[in-house]
Amino acid sequence: MTQPGETTSYRDIKRTVLERIRSGTWRPDTLLPNEQELAVEFSCTRTTVNRALRELAEEGFLERRRKAGTRVLSAPQRQARFTIPLVRDEVEAGGGQYRYALVSAELQPAPEWLSARLQLRAAQEVMHVRCMHYSSNTPFQYEDRWIVAESVPQVAQADFSATGPNDWLVQTVPFTNVELTFLASRADATLAGFLDMPEGEPVFTAERTTWLQGRPVTFAKLYFGAGYRMTTQI
Amino acid sequence: MTQPGETTSYRDIKRTVLERIRSGTWRPDTLLPNEQELAVEFSCTRTTVNRALRELAEEGFLERRRKAGTRVLSAPQRQARFTIPLVRDEVEAGGGQYRYALVSAELQPAPEWLSARLQLRAAQEVMHVRCMHYSSNTPFQYEDRWIVAESVPQVAQADFSATGPNDWLVQTVPFTNVELTFLASRADATLAGFLDMPEGEPVFTAERTTWLQGRPVTFAKLYFGAGYRMTTQI
DNA sequence: CAGTGGTCTAGACCACTCG
DNA sequence: GAGTGGTCTAGACCACTGA
Predict the structure, then answer these.
(1) Which residue's C-alpha is at the least distance from the C1' of D10?
(2) Which residues form the signal peptide (chains A, B) (predicted)?
(3) Which residues of B touch A86 (CB under 8 A)?
(4) Contact at CB, B80 and A84, closer than 8 angstroms
(5) Nearest protein residue by Cα to C1' of nucleotide C7
(6) Please, what is the angle between helix B10-23 and helix B46-58, to 10°?
(7) A209 at the B interface (CB within 8 A)?
(8) Which A residues in the span 34-53 are in contact with B, Cβ-Cβ below 8 Å?
(9) How far is it, in rounded angstroms, from Cα B29 to Cα B70?
(10) Does residue B203 surpass a pLDDT of 60?
(11) What are the tens digits of pLDDT across the range A134-191?
(12) Does B154 touch chain A (CB under 8 A)?
């Protein structure tokens, strides 16, 4: 397989293993030879085999357990990976010209549903920001966001007239934990107005809840314009 | 930092690096010390540092380039990772009892829109399968799927009365390439009937197009029942 | 308890790319 | 051209876990 003078790389091994799975040489549930044996077969070190198999396991093709060995997964755990872009990047990637517009921004006591959701104290102060993102003047996304003032005190002085709250947060509170949810919701009158669609239309919606070391930072509802599709290759 | 007798693991390094980023010690765009220097600091080998930084780069925190070095990304490229479960697993994970029901399955010439989408020859034969997935007898998902007979000849003999086409395909044609799209669509009369919801309701929808080494295998529209949410932690 | 993968060391050569 | 990360080798010890 490997010519003299060539070295076997972990990529070669990954490719070969995948091919054996695809071709049915190693069917689902098959136990692979152990790393030592594969190292001999591929004439490389166990380290190299290890890296190949480790990555394949991480990609959802194999299952590895000490002592039990490495097994072909019966149903490959395919994972969709979405990179979450900033809205501006997403618009520009689509060939549009990005424009931002603030709708409203005000400090207010958290509504009850938000307090429940983020485990806030009753009526804790939050900054409520609503804004629009346009792609070449076509409505792209309506954003409805709450930022917990106690967790991000600077928010009281923040100016969202030119910059969106997400951009601001990324600069101010980087590296948070995020819970992301996708759903289909229904355009009410307000939303239909902002997104320029008939009332009652389905709207692709994302909800992002963000925490910084256990403390709630922000909750955002992102409503995407008509025809929005989120696509990924696996 | 490391006590004598302890070894520094790549996990320790990852944690420390993340902490320095979080705390602002290494701000966005900062150039990190090179691997050799970090190896000295952490008193370990460059190999170990390499693994730590490589993984952090893959997770979207760092950018690495030869000669240029390793840099903190200004906007961390957070990635959402969804594991795509089999419907049955998804239902059972939600505590429901899974039930499958075939609606129809017939060989037919591909409709024009499908031929265009999958680059088929005109009127090429496809198996059209429609079926329902229930969670404890509540509609969970309506599946509308086309399977290209030329790419999967066995489909002509397949029996979808007891097993869903996805289960069958996973067994028959594993390890394909997939394009996955999420969108919000609108329940027409048929869909509203199957999913037991009022007509016109928003429906969370996934489209999966599957290829095997460049040849189109299947296209599926998956319509999820009322209130469906797809959630992930990042 | 024995077999398997998980990880680390020490050293080397190489590929890429910035200046 | 020279500095950086990318990868491989050879060997070792260890953690976990199945039989």
Answers:
(1) A45
(2) none
(3) 75
(4) yes
(5) B9
(6) 50
(7) no
(8) none
(9) 9
(10) yes
(11) 999 999 999 999 999 999 999 988 899 998 998 888 777 766 788 889 999 999 999 9
(12) no
Q: Is the CB of A14 under 7 A from strand D?
A: no
pLDDT band at B57 (very low <50, low <70, confident <90, very high): very high
Find tokens 């007509």 and name the residue.
B199
Question: B205 near B222, Cβ under 8 Å?
Answer: yes
Residue B75 is nearest to which of A60, A86, A202, comparing CB atoms?
A86
pLDDT at A178: 83
Q: Over the stretch B103-160, which tens digit does the pLDDT of each residue have?
A: 999 999 999 999 999 999 888 999 999 999 999 999 999 999 999 999 999 998 889 9
Residues of chain B contacting residue A233, judged by C-beta atoms under 8 Å apart: 177-180
Domains in chain B, start-ordered, CATH in brackets? 10-72 (1.10.10.10), 87-224 (3.40.1410.10)
Task: Give the whole-angstrom CA distance, residue B44 versus residue A120.
Answer: 44
Q: Please state the length of chain B.
A: 234
Amino acid at B148: V
Q: A102-108 long-range CB contacts below 8 Å, 24 or more apart? A: A102/A129, A102/A130, A102/A131, A102/A160, A102/A161, A103/A130, A103/A131, A103/A132, A103/A194, A104/A128, A104/A129, A104/A130, A105/A129, A105/A130, A105/A160, A105/A165, A107/A149, A107/A156
Q: In the predicted model, what is the mean pLDDT of chain B? A: 89
pLDDT tens digit string along A2-41?
333 456 799 999 999 999 988 889 988 899 999 999 999 9
* HSE value, Cβ hemisphere, 13 Å, CA-based, for A14: 16
Tokens standing for residue B8: 């520094």
H or E element at residue A137: none
- In the block, residue with structure tokens 């003032």: A149
| Residue B174's pLDDT band (cuts 50, 70, 90) | low
Give, rounded to a whole angstrom, the gap between the first and last alpha carbons of chain A. Answer: 29
What's the CA gap between A50 and A35, in Å, rounded?
Answer: 7
Which H or E element spans position B41?
helix B35-41
What's the CA angle centered on B193, arms B192 and B199, to 5 degrees? 30
Best mean pLDDT range from A93-107, B65-79, B171-185: A93-107
pLDDT attached to residue A233: 74
Strands (E) across chain A are located at 62-65, 69-72, 79-83, 98-109, 125-135, 138-148, 177-186, 202-212, 215-224, 230-233
Distance CA A142, CA A159 (A): 18
